[in-house]
Amino acid sequence: MVDQSRLWDARTAAEYDTPGEGMFAPEVLGPTAATLAGLAAGGSALELAIGTGRVAIALHEAGVAVTGIELSEAMIARLREKVDATEIPVVAGDMTTARAGEGYSLVYLVFNTISNLLTQEEQVECFRNAARHLAPGGCFVIELMVPDLRSLTPGTGGTLEHSEPGYLLVDTYDTLRQVLVSHHVRFDPEVDGSREASIGRTPQRYIWPAELDLMAQLAGFTLESRWADWDRAEFTAESGSHVSVYRLPTLDR
C-alpha cells in the first residue's frame, strides 16, 4: 500500500503552486470557481483533498464558505501561508473517512485526485463519505481524466506524455489493475550523464466514466451533468477529461 502522505511531502508542497500558470492560470481557475459557485447555490462547500488551496481560495474569494479535508500536513502548511483557519478551515485526514460536519450544498474533488485512492473499494468509500457530508439534494462534483489507452502501441506498457529540456513525463500502465504510474524525470540538460537525473513517481487508479457512475449509484447519487471541461463543453468519445456532477435525492422524493 502506498503512503500517499509521503508522496505529498514538504518538497512537493513547496513546488506545487505555479501562480498565474498551468493549473493556476486565470483561464483555468476562473471557470472552475464560477461553475462550483453556481452549483453551491448560496450554500457551503467542502473540498476533498484541498491541497494548497488552489481552487478553495478562488471559490472563497467568489463568496462561498469553503472547508477542506487534506491528508498531507505539508500541503496544509502551504495553504496556511496563504489563508488562515478562520477563512478556510481544514480537517487533517483521509478523504474516505475524515469528517468535517454535514449539511453542505456542494462537495467537490478536482484534478484527478480521486485516482490517488488506489483501490476500487477506497474510491467507493470516497463517494460514500461525500454523501455523508451533503444536505439532501446536494451535489458531488468530480474532475477526472479519461484514460487514453488507445495511445498504447501493441507490446508496450507506457507512453511519453511530455518532454522538455530538463524534464520528461512517462506514464506506465497496469491494465489489469487499472493503475497508471507517472514517472517524473528531472535532470540538468547541460550535464551529459544519467547519474545527474532524479525521478519521482505518482501512482493512480484510473476510472472509466461508466465505472464512476456505478460508484455514485452505490452511494445514493445520480448523474446530473457531464461536461468535457469547466466551460461546460460537450463531453464526447474524444474528450480527454470530464467534469461530472452527481446529486443526492431531496427529502420529498
TrEMBL record:
InterPro entries: Methyltransf_25 (IPR041698), SAM-dependent_MTases_sf (IPR029063). SUPFAM superfamilies: S-adenosyl-L-methionine-dependent methyltransferases (SSF53335). Residues 46-138 form the Methyltransferase domain. One of its GO terms (molecular function) is methyltransferase activity. The keyword Metal-binding does not apply. CDD domains: AdoMet_MTases. GO terms for biological process: methylation. The keyword RNA-binding does not apply. Keywords: Methyltransferase, Transferase. It holds the Pfam family Methyltransf_25. This is Class I SAM-dependent DNA methyltransferase.
